[in-house]
Amino acid sequence: MALHHDEIPIDADLAASVIRLERPEWAEFPLVRAGGGTDNVMFRLGDELLVRMPRTPGRVGSLRKEREWMPRLAPRLPVRIPEPVHAGAPSDRYPLEWSVYRWIEGAPPASDTVDDWARFGADLAEFVRDLHGTELMGAVRSGELSWYRGGSLREPVSWVEPAFAASRALVGDVLDVDRLERWWRDALVLPDSPAPHVWLHGDLRPGNLLARDGRLCAVIDFGALSVGAPDAEHAALWDLPSAARRGYWDAIDLDESTWLRARGWAIAVAVSGIPYYRETFPEFVAECVARLEAILADGEH
């Protein structure tokens, strides 16, 4: 099922045809669907490669960012990140750019892949600290590097506010949406972050983290790579078990205002995802509900 109104249908036959066209030496490699996020459909190609094909024209810029910045950021980070190996061109078979990356072994963090959640949280904090501490190398918050999550929490109010009403109708029987909205509004009145702009991954949800031997081994999908304020970067912590959050907070030492703004972002993104994906991506809606349940369980602190 399509997730977006302007989505291009993508299947293994289409992926195989564009690979044959541009890289015939890879044409005989096994091609297996490797899942798909909200932006791309992915296929594992042989043992060593991953193909990513944007679902819509608006997602192409994300691949360009990765091809430009991943080689420059990789040496400065403590775990592996995507390594582009081929830039696919538009064709009459598929009208958008696409990319091939080096395959990274690992699995999303879960009870069977992580044995010490506090340590995993500390691993993630180390990655965030190193990414945020990396020099911008001339990059500024503009164009493709100005994603909304690096700005003020007040900027997306126009579409977050109606999402509360929609979510209240959809999941109000299982979530205290009134309390969540109150916490979000409390965060809105805080001053914007005084921190200097930094590199942001933009979407550190568990599906973009890989674990191996119980530890964080890679961070993938830098489609939301941007430059901006660091608050929203911490929002995905509520997608992890509470022990991971404690390990992260102990390692990165967030001040109270940053923590509250991060919680506001976590609420805003999850509440907005529920009505948007309620019919097209129920698994993602379940993630949003689980995040909000975790926020409520944590309470005020």
UniProtKB/TrEMBL annotation:
MF terms in GO: transferase activity
InterPro entries on file: AGP_Transferase, Aminoglycoside_PTrfase, Kinase-like_dom_sf
CDD domains: APH_ChoK_like_1
Keyword Transferase in annotation: yes
Keyword Transferase (UniProt): yes
The entry's keywords: Transferase
Domain Aminoglycoside phosphotransferase: 33-264
Name of protein: Phosphotransferase
Lineage: Bacteria, Bacillati, Actinomycetota, Actinomycetes, Micrococcales
